[in-house]
Amino acid sequence: MSDRYAVIGNPIGHTKSPLIHSLFAQETGQDMSYEAIEGPVGSASGFSDSVKSFIAAGGRGMNVTAPFKLQAFEISDERSERAELSGAVNAMKFEDGRIIAENFDGVGLVRDIEVNLHQPMAGKRVLILGAGGAARGALLPFIAARPAKLVITNRHVDKARALVEQVAGSLTAGGSLTACGYADLEAMGRFDLVINATSASLTGQLPPVPPGVFSASAIAYELAYGKGLTPFLRLARNAGVQGIADGVGMLVEQAAEAFAWWRGVRPQTRALIERLTVPLD
Ligand code: NDP
């Protein structure tokens, strides 16, 4: 029997993970299956029960998507440092009766920016909007990419401040990390890379970011994907930003990280990213 993997979320109809992983398996010659599971919401043990029955049925690993990333964190036995920091888990491996947990969202994002978009972050001024699960997952991989300045802003600024305090010890020499409110951004100067890691675009909203944050050669990166020119990307475009991207590359890259973790072989991503890209204009 093929090794079984799955993604669990609710709703799950929109997921591209089964397509992505089956193409990865085909390309790398791995004997595995990958399905989508709609996890139950509104029941205290429903998520954990679903995971346990998948393990009992021979499951080897799972991706986790909204709204279960925090519950996956809670039920795991072992967690990577970045999963610990983000408090959220997007991939699990089942080994010897244990649930081992990872969060590949941040490394997937950094890889998309640095490798696919050819924008190394070292020495750059980087602004992250939002301090939710995705921003938290991105923080350690971003610090490891050694930007000169990393600023995190959030509506509830205390969340951004708490996050900065948590990772202050991971900062490398020469880098700076600051949390601030949106109202303080005008005074922060311009940024080379501005990441919208809020969920505002999912409801067609724009985070209150001033257009003056973009440098002349800035890249504006929207984590949401498949939504065309979101209000954030439109703001960037209207501010004269040439380089805009959405999170489809991050989606494929985090999947490739999970695949490599499970199967020991890293699949190619470029053709798949092109295939899944919805034009921004
Ligand atoms: P969370 O719910 O954990 O966090 C939401 C964040 O958005 C919070 O910081 C919240 O601020 C902020 N926010 C929500 N609405 C607004 C608004 N109108 N204005 C300003 N800030 C707002 O979400 P996630 O971190 O899990 O997801 C964030 C985004 O990343 C989503 O668009 C999601 O689809 C995308 N994503 C993409 C992935 C990919 O592979 N491409 C992977 C994971 C996520 P506050 O704390 O103040 O409420």
From TrEMBL:
SUPFAM superfamilies: Aminoacid dehydrogenase-like, N-terminal domain, NAD(P)-binding Rossmann-fold domains. It comes from the Bacteria. GO terms for molecular function: NADP binding; shikimate 3-dehydrogenase (NADP+) activity. Pathway: Metabolic intermediate biosynthesis; chorismate biosynthesis; chorismate from D-erythrose 4-phosphate and phosphoenolpyruvate: step 4/7. Residues 247-274 form the SDH C-terminal domain. It catalyses: shikimate + NADP(+) = 3-dehydroshikimate + NADPH + H(+). Keywords: Amino-acid biosynthesis, Aromatic amino acid biosynthesis, NADP, Oxidoreductase. The keyword Oxidoreductase applies. Residues 120-201 form the Quinate/shikimate 5-dehydrogenase/glutamyl-tRNA reductase domain. GO terms for biological process: amino acid biosynthetic process; aromatic amino acid family biosynthetic process; chorismate biosynthetic process; shikimate metabolic process. The keyword Oxidoreductase applies. NADP(+) binds at E81, G130, A131, G132, G133, A134, L223, G247. Residues 7-91 form the Shikimate dehydrogenase substrate binding N-terminal domain. Pfam families: SDH_C, Shikimate_DH, Shikimate_dh_N. The active site is at K69 (proton acceptor). Homodimer. HAMAP family: Shikimate_DH_AroE. Belongs to the shikimate dehydrogenase family. This is Shikimate dehydrogenase (NADP(+)). The lineage of its organism: Bacteria, Pseudomonadati, Pseudomonadota, Betaproteobacteria, Burkholderiales. The gene is aroE.
